[in-house]
Design brief:
Blueprint lengths: L1 E5 L4 E5 L11 H25 L22 H4 L5 H11 L5 E5 L5 H7 L5 E6 L2 H11 L7 E5 L2 H4 L6 E6 L6 H9 L9 H7 E9 L9 H10 L2 E8 L14 E8 L1
Parallel strand pairs: 3-4, 3-6, 4-5, 6-7
Antiparallel strand pairs: 1-2, 7-9, 8-9
Helix pairs in contact: 3-4
């Protein structure tokens, strides 16, 4: 079976060599699903063409050294262009109020935004010793609030925690291995955290994370979410991107996701 989609800009060919691959009861059904997949891929290619017109060049990152205990500058932890994303995510994760879990303290910006909302408790997991020092200074602003720190990697500590009304996940790959596995090899960096989010959310709890999606969600991403959560919603946040952005993000918008258990 062979299908071709052509335009002036590109040509896509799909050849099914195995007669048992995509083999519903009728040939017409096979044709329908393959044609639909090819149509969707063509639409994605055309959407990418439009999206990339507004990409900024960005800067080349040459080092993927171990960052677990590396002392980083503020802009290395999180660049300022992400602040609107953090604001939208903080509103999503606190939409039910209650008990909030934040994975990664960073510069404390998202923690401040979470504290602006009406919540009961705020638990933060952070592994970097230098960042933990900054957390203790930050905490002084909220002496009367119920905030607790878990010092360590989330992989080593989360099983000791209970359940939460909202979970906010925004960390970065700590080394080259994590980068290759969870950035290059995944639809979104947070993918490997999804089963933990499901386990540690209360019923109807909200989960949000840096999506790595520009203006919608791919079918792969949607299927992955629905494997672990009952539903999700998406909002698109416009961004003002610096030309020399250091992060692996170049688009002028990002999709912020609310996944509900």
């Amino acid at each position: 079976m062979k299908r071709i989609k052509r335009s002036e800009a590109f040509e896509v060919t799909v050849v099914l060599n195995d007669n048992d691959f995509i083999a519903p009861p009728r040939a017409a059904q096979r044709n329908a699903v393959v044609n639909r997949a090819l149509k969707e891929f063509t639409a994605d290619i055309n959407a990418l063409h439009e999206q990339t017109k507004s990409f900024v060049p960005g800067a080349t990152i040459n080092s993927l050294d171990d960052r677990e205990q590396k002392v980083l500058e503020d802009q290395e932890i999180m660049e300022d262009w992400q602040i609107p994303v953090m604001k939208a995510m903080s509103e999503v994760v606190t939409s039910n109020g209650g008990d909030i879990l934040e994975i990664g303290f960073g510069r404390g910006i998202s923690a401040d935004l979470i504290q602006e909302q009406s919540i009961q408790s705020h638990t933060i997991i952070e592994c970097n010793d230098a960042v933990v020092d900054q957390y203790h200074h930050w905490k002084e602003k909220y002496a009367e609030k119920e905030i607790s720190l878990v010092h360590g990697l989330w992989q080593d500590t989360i099983d000791d925690l209970g359940t939460f009304d909202g979970i906010f996940f925004h960390t970065y790959p700590l080394n080259e291995d994590e980068y290759m596995r969870y950035v290059n090899g995944s639809i979104t960096f947070a993918e490997h955290f999804f089963p933990y989010a499901q386990t540690h959310l209360k019923d109807n709890g909200a989960f949000t994370y840096f999506s790595n999606e520009v203006d919608s969600l791919s079918r792969e991403h949607q299927r992955l979410l629905l494997r672990y959560f009952s539903s999700f919603s998406v909002q698109v946040v416009p961004l003002k991107m610096p030309q020399d952005v250091k992060d692996t993000w170049w688009a002028d918008s990002i999709a912020v996701i609310k996944a509900v258990k």
